[in-house]
UniProtKB/TrEMBL annotation:
It holds the Pfam family AAA_lid_14. GO terms for molecular function: ATP binding. It comes from the Bacteria. InterPro entries: AAA_lid_NorR, CheY-like_superfamily, Homeodomain-like_sf, P-loop_NTPase, Sig_transdc_resp-reg_receiver, Sigma_54_int. This is Sigma-54-dependent Fis family transcriptional regulator. One of its GO terms (biological process) is regulation of DNA-templated transcription. Keywords: ATP-binding, Nucleotide-binding.
Amino acid sequence: MSGATLNDNNSMYSSYFITRAMNKILIVDASAPDGRIMAGLLTRAGYDPVVTDCIEAGKVEAAKLPPGAVIVAAMRLSDGTAKEFINWLKTEGYKFPVIAIVDNLNTDAVDVMRGGGAVDVVQRLAIDKQLIETVEKYAKPEHVVLTLGNQLLPRKSEVWQKIEEKITAIAATNANAIIFGECGSGKEQVAHQIYLNSSREQKPITIVDAGGAALVGRHNPENERSEIYNRIEGYFQKSAGGTIIIKNVHLLTFEKQSVLLHILETEHPDVRVICTAEPELLKMVTEKTFRPNLFFILRQSDIAVPALKDTTEDIPEIADFFLKRYSAKTGKQRKHLDASAIKALKLYPWPGNVRELKDIVLFAAFHAKGDIISEADINFNLSEPRADDDLSLRNPQREREKILEAYRRGGSWSEAAKLLGITEKTLFNLRNKYGIERNGENQP
């Protein structure tokens, strides 16, 4: 079996659950909002981020970094470039790996990786999808606690049972497929299960990230085709008779879309293509920023993976799965969630979905003093903006929708009032205003 990732191996496609000695991560980025987002993501994943906005401040913090640290630096800064910062690090004898944040993969990435000394790149538009996965490759962990491959997590919800049935049905065909879902919802595991249950399982699989450096290339003047064309075609040749999984297909540039479309339409490779995508892909097709003809070739079948907040009944079982593996790998006594912890987990909106649940549960297991994990041991990261998950009643046009959402999540009107940040009396009046019965149904 073969696999193509940023480093041409399969490690990118596995999820690593790591107990870290709080690895320091130095962020050097002039964008304050992106700096906050990166710091939030890293904190939730168990790292200790330090944020600076220029090279000079970065130099001061770099001198304080302990072994095992990683530096994340923007390609362009107010007082220089990432290349200049990396050159300073080399001059001072620091060998911390530097991950560059780039705006343009086709030019910036090639420049900073080929001549600038960065070990890897992350596209700015894909920070939430690529940052943690990339940092994990270079941070030096204290020890690995739990490794999870491409298996599906145990889930009992009716929605998930239907997804497993659809996986089996699609796997029995040779149809291309797109797996839709929010970041961290488990799209990649679903895509891999289609491959594992198909007749192509005995043939090679190649995994590429549409927004990653694996598709970076420059035009080769000695070749009639661009390096991007040669590279994508090479993936198909490598996977003959097998499967290509394209992660985050919505991040493909228009040029790469055109190359992929041309290969599929003219060369008809004997390769099944399974893509993962966030729901925004559908809007991109409507707005013609993603080629409709390519979309329909790729979406011969599809699966919509639900957000964790829509299948909260699965949370106890998934969390228990993580805790079992934690105990098995560490040799520590098995830990359990009490009722208060389960309730807290069910009420949380989960913008990071299952991936975030994994991080939070393992963090709680590591830090809980006893064998019982309570609500007090659960550490939620609330630093990220969550406009769509905010249940406060600030938009009158969406009040009714938010009220019903809060009731569904909370399971009772008292819990719904807490989520909405209002009193139960106010909520009662709003229910009367919008004609909402006690059971959440419309009044006749």
